[in-house]
Design brief:
single chain, alpha+beta, conserved putative lor/sdh protein from methanococcus maripaludis s2 fold, Helix Hairpins, 6-stranded antiparallel β-barrel, 4-stranded antiparallel β-sheet, 6 helices
Length: 445
């Protein structure tokens, strides 16, 4: 083969290879442009949905009584400690009673003196009454004597001087009656005052005896001591208010959870709903309870309003302790054998120009409310058409467990594949910007 022929042969080979490279590049570019966005889908299924409210709360006894000290004093003895089981009326502590015993002795002595004085005054009243009676009898006699003297004077039997003396004696007798009446009234007033003083002294004695009794601190209920705030030798000052020295929890076999529930959840919580909860101390155990009421006393923290939902439960082994944190699950709705829409499908929104989206909504008769809001529970999901094009569907949703949402109305069938995300070029996916409609319950936040 000549040199020219060899050169021409190699030239043809180079041209063929270059053409193949160009063809492959054009094919790859064409395929890349024709592939377009890729979609991830999830199947619509049928199943059961339970909507729940989840909240945290604190375990509390049914009743906790704060035991205070009505009087001030120094703690002399303590007869109960933390976790001590006590009975109603059992002695918990003893304050030094010396000063109160002295007050009782003083008050009792004052009362005895007043009672003795009362007896003397009562005797004075009797004497004054007798003197009055004597004066009244003497005055009556002098009245009769004065009348006879006057009659004799008129008849000229006695002299005027003798008659005047008789009339003077009558006046003295009548003055004695008034004096005796005044003395009796004074004696009676002194007796009444002494009786009032005795009543006051009896009250002072009762107060002193009561204060002495209060130096012995008793349990007001059957229960368990959950707090002790005093030590032997400590001074207890009960000046403006009774200091809390013990806290006694009643019947730890029956307790409550105070669960802080959001204001938006309270409308779905009903009394008597069965509840489950867990605690950190027993992470593998699930405890049962029942809603007893929602307390109408809101708590606002950073504009978040919550209410205490009270959950009663039995604690027969006293396994759970006051103050533990409970993680509560309250069911608020249940849909049995319903069509379930995967929640990611409800949050998906395709990456299209607004004009293109509005054209699709109009083409498939999607109202503006369903396309932009959750008004009346209506919103939009997307599925792939026969040629892999996106098709919007208006659906009305019910309750959700935050994995799936109940379908109430809409042209969605079991087995349909709804779009949940989109991949296009460098974009890794689109999970949408909207949350599913909260119809009948709230799930984990």
């Amino acid at each position: 083969m000549s040199l020219r022929e060899s050169y021409n042969k190699h030239k043809v080979s180079y041209i063929v290879v270059a053409c193949l490279i160009v063809i492959v590049a054009l094919w790859g570019y064409s395929k890349t442009r024709s592939d377009g966005p890729k979609y991830t889908t999830a199947a619509v299924r049928r199943g059961n949905i339970t909507a729940v409210v989840q909240a945290t709360g604190t375990i509390n006894p049914l009743t906790t009584v704060s035991v205070g000290s009505y009087v001030s004093g120094t703690v002399q003895y303590i007869f109960a400690d933390f976790n001590t089981r006590v009975k109603n009326g059992q002695i918990l502590a003893q304050l030094d009673p010396a000063i109160y015993e002295a007050q009782v002795v003083e008050a009792r002595g004052n009362l005895q003196n007043a009672e003795a004085n009362l007896a003397t005054l009562d005797a004075n009243v009797q004497v004054s009454a007798a003197n009055l009676a004597k004066s009244q009898a003497n005055a009556k006699y002098e009245v009769a004597t004065a009348k006879r003297s006057q009659d004799l004077f008129t008849s000229g039997v006695v002299s005027a001087d003798s008659n005047d003396q008789t009339q003077s004696t009558l006046g003295q007798a009548q003055a004695d009656v008034k004096s005796s009446e005044a003395a009796l009234e004074q004696a009676r007033a002194q007796l009444a005052q002494a009786k009032t003083q005795i009543t006051a002294m009896k009250g002072a004695l009762d107060a002193a005896e009561t204060n002495l009794k209060y130096t012995t601190i008793l349990s007001p209920i059957d229960g368990t001591v959950v707090a002790r705030n005093i030590d032997v030798g400590q001074s207890v000052a009960a000046t403006l208010q009774a200091p809390n020295v013990f806290s006694v929890a009643q019947d730890l076999t029956r307790m409550q959870v105070y669960a802080a529930t959001d204001e938006s959840d309270t409308g779905n919580i009903r009394n008597g709903i069965p509840v489950t909860f867990q605690v950190d101390a027993f992470p593998n155990d699930v405890f049962q309870g029942r809603v007893s009421n929602i307390r109408l006393n809101p708590t606002t923290v950073q504009n978040v309003v919550t209410y205490n939902t009270i959950i009663d439960f039995n604690n027969p082994d006293e396994k759970l302790l006051p103050g533990e944190t409970a993680y509560v699950t309250i069911p608020t709705g249940h849909a049995k054998d319903t069509v379930e829409i995967p929640n990611p499908a409800l949050t998906f929104k395709p990456q299209m120009q607004p004009v293109v989206l509005q054209r699709l909504y109009k083409q498939y008769n999607i109202s503006s409310e369903a396309s932009t809001t959750h008004l009346g529970g209506w919103q939009t999901v997307w599925k792939l058409g026969p040629t892999k094009q996106l098709v919007p569907i208006a659906v009305q949703c019910g309750i959700t467990d935050y994995n799936n949402t109940q379908l109430l109305q809409g042209d969605v069938q079991v087995g349909d594949e709804l779009v949940t995300s989109e991949q296009n070029g460098s974009n890794k996916g689109n999970n949408g910007t909207r949350a599913p409609f909260m119809g009948g319950g709230r799930g984990p936040r």
